[in-house]
Amino acid sequence: MPVNIPRDLPARATLEDEGIFVMSQERASHQDIRPLRIAILNLMPTKIATETQLLRVLGSTPLQVEITLLHMASHESRNTAPEHLEAFYATFDDVRDEYFDGLVITGAPIEKLDFEDVDYWPEMTEILDWSTEHVHSTMHVCWGAQAALYRHYGVGKYELPAKTFGVFNHRVIAPEAILLRGFDEEFAAPHSRHTDVHAADIEATGKVDLLAVSEEAGVFMAATPDFRQVFITGHPEYDRDTLAREYRRDVEAGLEIEKPQHYFPDDDPEREPVMRWRGHGFLLYANWLNYCVYQQTPFQPDTPGG
């Protein structure tokens, strides 16, 4: 079954060219089925690229998924046209009385700021608190994961001496977890962040389980025992060239940046990176949609704890 997105969303053409099954809202309305209601809170400045990446992995399962895109009302986006936000996005005020089967909260390039110094932090905390009652399962990604761990459990973040940047190897430490069904014992995933959360701090909460870690990149995946809250510190949804574009952007801006680790063949930025994380990225989101959302959410989404 397809991911249900607006007919004119720019991501649609890209996904159709890749063979991802997408469906217009008009066609979906004629099917006698309740689709999963999934919201995406897109905090990234490159919103169209992030939409495409997330819709790609969310559209890889047999489940019909109805997508609601959200942006922050308290923050003015400088990299996305207002017309795009007006046409395809809602704000929290638009949906605060609604219920969703799932929510994805993306990362944001603001890790070095204290949480309270982020201009939209009051709105962010309101959304995080709302999600515990109005969403059955929330997938928090990168800065979104750090923000949620801090808000819900008081887990702090630590600035790194050098950016964690590249494609790193990870090992599964909870093979029985439903989120990791079908995973190899070791798998690759991209990271791009200036801050870190510590495994010991997460374990000290007594309420969040570690699921996968990396010797080089640290914690990768954690979740509450009921999988109502999932935390991913990396970017398994990234495209082949996402890290390359980030690297070249920073080089052109004159910033100090090392080449992404374990990414370019022979560490040569002129060579095309090998995609070696997509399979597990698709599997992660498929497991989340199936086991953490579809298999557990009540038929009526206005009772998310049922």
From TrEMBL:
This is Homoserine O-acetyltransferase. Pfam families: HTS. Transmembrane segments: none annotated. Keywords: Acyltransferase, Amino-acid biosynthesis, Cytoplasm, Methionine biosynthesis, Transferase. The keyword Transferase applies. Its EC number is 2.3.1.31. The record marks 111 as: Important for acyl-CoA specificity. Substrate binds at residues 163, 192, 249. One of its GO terms (molecular function) is homoserine O-acetyltransferase activity. GO terms for biological process: L-methionine biosynthetic process from homoserine via O-succinyl-L-homoserine and cystathionine. It comes from Epidermidibacterium keratini.
